[in-house]
């Protein structure tokens, strides 16, 4: 574990979600199909509203059957509270009331070259929001520890409300000549984000609701979630903590992978054409692997089966864009890549993850700028990280301080154990 990135080591409390290697993610006990079925949607049989998931992460409890009122049955016999449409609408209204971004944030972003990576600009904007931190003000006034969660809650809700505005500003600044689209207070969280980016089709609104929901949280051990938790354990406020998390998310082995997938898929098309055979695709996959590279979008540090987040995006594509050429290519990759990775014998999980599909969906609706995709991930992840930060402070979790060792210590330990 010392040299293996602490892979699989149990060392964190993360209330809002739990990742099972075989089953995938559960948000407060609910799987992704559960969330799609049970959380309020903008329209009948539509995708869940991200505000509903936020409500669930903040307040959801799994309780014994006899102790709960409006609930959903889980197995074993436990019940989980889910929000009503009225509760979700109220939370959506609350977020809209907090979404205004101060001018100094835009000025901080504008101080960077337009050519700066979108994640650099986004993280800079989030850090600039820290000026308004209620937690910092309360801490400086001597707030008791038992009340730390209250200004953390205020900061977290404001941050969640503001990051789509900041993220959309970055997109329009880089790719649309700085022509900014203001928020629309008649729209929900996901649809408004899509609108501010410049995409107003009902299908894109639905996709953004799904995207934000499924990317919001993935328990606490991944780089961005763990970074946010670690920094917050020093009582850094949510803005500082989430900005740090974004810098972890920007790494190629974490959130940046979603841009790499679409770029790789387009390289396949450039070399083989859109109507390639499975044999041609196999040859290209082997060419990628033999060059010392990985096939992006396949494998996961915890999961040992196909990522449920991949499957719900596949279902979305089958419903809305079954004839899209890149979707058809992704479907072929689903058949071709896992057997090849299994044949290599070095991969514990040869199945596709969430990144294998998201770029193709976004590309279909016109959001083609792959370098920007990680910002979408970052906006989404604010919901999970900030929800848990509130619980960190409410539970009074300790400063994180694991033990490290030197290589010499490790060598001596191994010799003694031999």
TrEMBL record:
PROSITE patterns: CITRATE_SYNTHASE
Gene Ontology cellular component annotations, sorted alphabetically: mitochondrial matrix
Gene3D superfamilies with a match to the protein in the record: Citrate Synthase, domain 1, Cytochrome P450-Terp, domain 2
Pfam (any one): Citrate_synt
GO molecular function: acyltransferase activity, acyl groups converted into alkyl on transfer
Keywords assigned by UniProt, alphabetized: Transferase
GO biological process: carbohydrate metabolic process; citrate metabolic process; tricarboxylic acid cycle
Active site: 254, 300, 355
First and last residue of the signal peptide: none
Family according to the record: Belongs to the citrate synthase family.
NCBIfam families: cit_synth_euk, PRK09569.1
Protein's name according to its UniProt entry: Citrate synthase
């Amino acid at each position: 574990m010392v040299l293996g990135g602490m892979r699989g080591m149990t060392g964190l409390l993360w209330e809002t979600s739990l990742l099972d290697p075989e089953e995938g993610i559960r948000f407060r006990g609910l799987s992704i199909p559960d969330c799609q079925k049970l959380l309020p949607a903008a329209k009948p049989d539509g995708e869940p509203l991200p505000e509903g998931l936020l409500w669930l992460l903040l307040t959801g409890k799994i309780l014994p059957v006899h102790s709960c009122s409006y609930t959903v049955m889980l197995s074993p016999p436990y019940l989980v509270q889910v929000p009503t449409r009225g509760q979700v609408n109220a939370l959506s209204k609350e977020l809209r009331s907090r979404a205004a971004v101060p001018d100094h944030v835009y000025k901080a972003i504008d101080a960077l070259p337009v050519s700066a990576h979108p994640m650099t600009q986004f993280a800079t904007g989030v850090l600039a929001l820290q000026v308004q931190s209620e937690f910092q003000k309360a801490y400086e006034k001597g707030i008791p520890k038992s009340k730390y969660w209250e200004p953390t809650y205020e900061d977290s809700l404001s941050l969640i409300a503001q990051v789509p505005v900041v993220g959309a500003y970055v997109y329009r600044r880089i790719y649309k000549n700085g022509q900014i689209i203001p928020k629309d207070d008649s729209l929900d969280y996901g649809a408004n984000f899509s609108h501010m980016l410049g995409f107003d089709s009902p299908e894109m609104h639905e996709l953004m609701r799904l995207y934000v929901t499924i990317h919001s949280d993935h328990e606490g051990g991944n780089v961005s979630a763990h970074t946010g938790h670690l920094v917050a354990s020093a009582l850094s406020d949510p803005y500082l903590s989430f900005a740090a998390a974004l810098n972890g998310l920007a790494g190629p082995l974490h959130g940046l992978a979603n841009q790499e997938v679409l770029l790789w898929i387009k390289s396949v098309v450039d070399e083989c054409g859109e109507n390639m055979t499975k044999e041609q695709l196999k040859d290209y996959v082997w060419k990628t692997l033999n060059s010392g590279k990985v096939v992006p979008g396949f494998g996961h540090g915890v999961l040992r089966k196909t990522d449920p987040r991949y499957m719900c995006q596949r279902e979305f594509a089958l419903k809305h864009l079954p004839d899209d050429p890149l979707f058809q290519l992704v479907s072929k990759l689903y058949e071709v890549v896992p057997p090849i990775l299994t044949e290599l014998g070095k991969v514990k999980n040869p199945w596709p993850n969430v990144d294998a599909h998201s770029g193709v969906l976004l590309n279909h609706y016109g959001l083609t700028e792959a370098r920007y995709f990680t910002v979408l991930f970052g906006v989404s992840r604010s919901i999970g990280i900030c929800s848990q930060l509130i619980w960190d402070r409410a539970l009074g979790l300790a400063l994180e301080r694991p033990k490290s060792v030197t290589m010499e210590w490790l060598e001596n330990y191994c010799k003694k154990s031999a």
